[in-house]
Every structure is written in C-alpha cells, then in structure tokens.
C-alpha cells in the first residue's frame, strides 16, 4: 500500500488530523511535522482540522473520529508510563490511519501493536531493537505506510513526511503552496533511505550485508549479478539471500532493483536527462523493462513522473 491510498480520505470533509505531542515541542521531529500541517490548515480553513494534544489530553479523550492520528516523540524522550501509553495508543488506533514519528515508533513496536508491520525507525535507536525485530519489520526508509500504519524516522524526514501527507490528503496545489512558504524545493519520497541506517544497524553485526549494499549503490549504471555480489563479499548466493531476507525483508535482486529505480526517479525529478538516458544510467537497456518496473514500484510511468516535475515547475 502507498500514500496514494490516503487520497480516498480527501473526499471526507472536514479532514481531521490528530497529533499527540509527547513533550518536546523544540525537537525537529515535532516542528518538522506540525508546521507544514498548520500551514495546510490555514490554507483550507474549516475543511482541515488539526488537533494537537498532550499525552494526558489524548489519554483521557473520548472522541475518536480522526482520519489520521500520530504519536510524536523525539529519540531521547523517556517512555511514558505503560497505562498512559496504552490509553494513547487506543485513542490513535481509532483513526483510519495511525502510527508514530521518531522515538514513538519504538514505543509502539515495544507495545506489540506493530506485529508484522514495516516500520521506519530512527537509526540512532537501532541498538534498542533486538526484542522487536521478531514482531515488526524494520526498514531503513525515511517513512513507511503499511496498511493503516504510518511511521516516520523523525528529524528532518518529518518535513518530507508531513508534505507527503499534505499532498495525499489535500492535493498537490496545497502541498506546492506549503513548500513555497517553507522554501522547500524537493520532497524526499517514502522509499528513500536513511543514509546511515544500514551502517548503524548492520555495520558491526552484519558487515557482509553492509558491504553488499555498498556494492549495489556503487554499481547502479552497470548492475552486478547476485552471484557476483555474493562472491565479492565472500558468501554463497544462498547465504546472501538469507541475510537480505532476514534483515531487509527482500531478496538481493529485488532490493537492488529498487535502489536503481529510486535513483532513476531522483534523476527524472532533478535533472533534464531524457527518459532513455535515465534508464541507461540506472542499468536498464530496455525502455519497456524500465517503464514496467518503474510503474510497478511507484504506480506511474517514467514519463508521468517527468510530467509531474514539469507541472510543479
């Protein structure tokens, strides 16, 4: 499921978004999320309700007709008492889409409410994930949507997350106006990765996995085969596939393909290279293969992606 699925909520008026502040309004995770949403609220007026509450207010609330509910916490904040956290989670789960931002993602995973869900966790908290990896599926992405569940690693990614929500809920026009006010040129997509996440989590514990991903990132234009990568890092193909499946939830070939397609999307949005050139630069010798793979991952063709850039300009 992608953020495009949130667009069905745009037909419901007024849109109601709940943000639960865990107590650090000076953090980038909080300000990066709430400021863009407040600007969207000003633009839409009564059609967009942004409900900001403390933990205590959310825990004692009896209403629950929000479309999106998010618990937001910076990485360093101590976890709230279990009864209060359970009450806040129950309030948030009543929303159509709900989840956490920053350190709150770890709180939700530890509470056992993200079983089997793909989550984006701040890389600095990866050392605390040994017990939750059997329940949630950690990804190195900036933010994730899995079913009704939303998660964002926080920090500067909160701005990209908020702007992505605004586009899905309020439309590209509102997003463009908010971007202009905040002087933001590009919104990073959900599938972009925290650059340090793989090293932080796997560098010491799984150096072979980290080395394999580094090889992939360095060989986008002329992709290596899975066997070549396995040989270069000193593993069998089966051992490499097992590592990727266990820690990244994907086969090496699929992960590599997504890396190349993410690079292609970046080039389509940020350069004037032709679509054919972009495909070749990302290891696709066949234009039809490039277009089909791109459409499968992102839901639109390379041509439509380039047209979106031109329309935004």
Task: Please specify the SSE layout and strand pairing.
Layout: E1 15-21, H1 28-44, E2 48-54, H2 55-59, E3 68-73, H3 82-92, E4 97-102, H4 103-110, E5 118-120, E6 137-139, E7 143-146, E8 149-152, H5 157-170, H6 172-182, H7 197-202, H8 207-218, H9 226-233, H10 237-248, H11 252-270, H12 275-281, H13 287-298, H14 302-312
Helix pairs in contact: 1-5, 1-6, 5-6, 8-9, 11-13, 11-14
Question: Could you describe the 3D structure shown?
Answer:
With 313 residues, this protein is an alpha/beta fold. It folds into two domains: 3-182, Class I glutamine amidotransferase (GATase) domain (Rossmann fold), CATH 3.40.50; 203-313, Orthogonal Bundle (Arc Repressor Mutant, subunit A), CATH 1.10.10. The chain contains 14 helices and eight strands. It has helices at residues 28-44, 55-59, 82-92, 103-110, 157-170, 172-182, 197-202, 207-218, 226-233, 237-248, 252-270, 275-281, 287-298, 302-312, and strands spanning 15-21, 48-54, 68-73, 97-102, 118-120, 137-139, 143-146, 149-152.
Question: Nutshell version of this structure?
Answer:
The protein has 14 helices and 8 strands. It has helices at 28-44, 55-59, 82-92, 103-110, 157-170, 172-182, 197-202, 207-218, 226-233, 237-248, 252-270, 275-281, 287-298, 302-312, and strands at residues 15-21, 48-54, 68-73, 97-102, 118-120, 137-139, 143-146, 149-152.
């Amino acid at each position: 499921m992608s953020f495009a699925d949130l667009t069905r909520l745009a037909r419901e008026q007024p849109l109601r978004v709940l943000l639960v502040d865990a107590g650090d309004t000076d953090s980038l995770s909080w300000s990066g999320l709430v400021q863009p949403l407040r600007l969207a609220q000003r633009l839409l007026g009564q059609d967009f309700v942004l409900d900001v509450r403390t933990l205590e207010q959310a825990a004692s609330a009896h209403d629950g007709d929000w479309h999106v509910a998010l618990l937001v916490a910076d990485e360093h904040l101590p976890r709230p008492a279990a009864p209060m956290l359970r009450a806040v989670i129950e309030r948030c789960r009543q929303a159509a889409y709900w989840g956490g931002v920053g350190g709150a993602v770890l709180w939700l995973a530890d509470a056992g409410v993200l079983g089997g869900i793909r989550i984006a966790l701040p890389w600095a908290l990866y050392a605390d994930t040994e017990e939750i990896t059997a329940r949630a599926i950690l990804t190195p992405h900036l933010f994730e949507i899995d079913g009704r569940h939303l998660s964002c690693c926080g920090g500067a990614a909160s701005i990209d997350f908020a702007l992505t929500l605004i586009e899905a809920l309020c439309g590209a026009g509102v997003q463009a106006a908010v971007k202009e006010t905040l002087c933001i040129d590009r919104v990073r997509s959900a599938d972009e990765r925290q650059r340090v996440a793989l090293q932080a989590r796997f560098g010491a514990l799984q150096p072979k996995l980290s080395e394999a991903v580094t090889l992939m990132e360095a060989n986008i234009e002329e992709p290596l085969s899975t066997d070549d990568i396995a040989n270069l890092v000193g593993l069998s193909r089966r051992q490499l596939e097992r590592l990727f499946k266990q820690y990244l939830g994907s086969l090496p070939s699929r992960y590599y393909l997504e890396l190349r397609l993410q690079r292609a999307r970046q080039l389509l949005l940020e350069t004037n290279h032709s679509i054919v050139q972009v495909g070749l630069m990302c290891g696709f010798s066949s234009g039809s293969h490039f277009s089909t793979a791109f459409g499968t991952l992102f839901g639109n063709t390379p041509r439509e992606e380039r047209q979106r850039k031109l329309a935004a300009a």
